[in-house]
Design brief:
- The protein is mainly alpha-helical.
- The chain has 3 domains: 2-69, no CATH class; 72-160, no CATH class; 185-305, no CATH class.
- It is built from 12 helices and 6 strands.
- The strands form 3 sheets. The protein has a two-stranded antiparallel sheet with strand order 1-2. Strands 3-4 form a two-stranded antiparallel ribbon.
- The radius of gyration is 26 Å and the shape is elongated.
- The chain starts with a strand and ends with a helix.
């Protein structure tokens, strides 16, 4: 049952009595007068409630006074983009995908002054985690603020506590998002971050498949890998064509990918090739990398034959 914000206490009692949740609106009124007299602070709380009609009027009144509303949970895994989050919320019946996309395009710098000045979307800064909220009151704007609050409390201190980081905040989250998308096996996370760091130092293009996928709004699979034409499609996010980092993050990185980006593994590797079990073959030279590609292709062909 929903109790709207601002509903008078006596009206709540009448509505509960009409719904058969409590037996007497008069008993409710007596409890309200007593509670108001004994409590200097507090009030009945709006929200969505799951009432047990077998409970006493006092029990029900206490439930509403304490705001014991139904809690709903939502989970955003690491590596999800805003578009994927929007689809999730619509699919789960929270709100429309478009309302979330609109909320994520608003940059609330007044409340979060640490947000980079150049961003036009909150991509990368909506922290992936499991959240709880009162059922029936959740809006796209509230979700965005919950996720920004979590980034502020979990991720931002890690960056601020780092002595002389080589990346600014936007660069950090951007590279962290690429590491998040590339690193399937946690043990490889710092090494992948190290490869990208070395490529950036040497002025090499990052050549990361997930940046192309993000630019095109697609997701490659074993059966449908990126084509040459797709890799050659111009976009500011295409790190095969453009040097350096893309303009912004391509997903929401988790804390481990963000930490790996601040503390990458020192390595001579400049390339890696994904196997289809989530691991990678790391190479120092282009010739080694091309050999690794051949190995993965042969393994895939062998698997298909079997």
């Amino acid at each position: 049952m929903d109790i709207a914000p601002g509903t008078p206490a006596q009206q709540i009692g009448q509505d509960l009595a009409a719904a058969g949740v409590i037996r007497s609106a008069e008993a409710w009124s007596l409890w309200v007068r007593w509670q108001t007299w004994r409590s200097e602070t507090g009030e009945f709380q709006a929200g969505t409630y799951d009432f047990d009609p077998s409970k006493t009027t006092i029990d029900i009144a206490t439930q509403v006074w304490n705001g014991d509303v139904i809690q709903q949970r939502y989970t955003i895994p690491e590596g999800r983009s805003i578009a994927e989050m929007a689809d999730y919320f619509e699919r789960e019946g929270f709100f429309s995908a478009e309302s979330f996309l609109e909320a994520a395009r608003l940059i609330p710098r007044a409340d979060y002054p640490w947000l980079p000045e150049t961003i036009t979307t909150l991509e990368g800064f909506l922290y992936p985690d499991t959240y709880q909220a009162a059922s029936g009151t959740l809006s796209a704007e509230e979700v965005v603020r919950q996720m920004l609050d979590r980034f502020e409390s979990v991720a931002l201190p890690v960056y601020r506590e780092t002595q002389n980081p080589s990346l600014d905040l936007l660069e950090w989250v951007t590279l962290g998002s690429i590491v998040e998308k590339e690193a399937v096996i946690p043990a490889e996370r710092r090494l992948i971050a190290g490869v990208f760091t070395e490529r950036l130092k040497k002025g090499m293009n990052l050549a990361s498949d997930p940046t192309v996928e993000y630019a095109l709004g697609i997701r490659q699979t074993v059966d449908q890998p990126l084509t040459y034409a797709q890799v050659e499609t111009p976009s500011p996010y295409n790190t095969y064509l453009n040097p350096g980092l893309p303009p912004g993050p391509i997903a929401s990185p988790g804390i481990e990918s963000l930490k790996a980006t601040l503390n990458p593994e020192s390595t001579e590797y400049l390339y890696f090739m994904a196997r289809y079990d989530g691991t990678h073959i790391f190479s120092r030279t282009l010739a080694e990398h091309e050999a690794a590609i051949d190995t993965v292709v042969r393994d895939l062909e062998t698997r298909d034959v079997e």
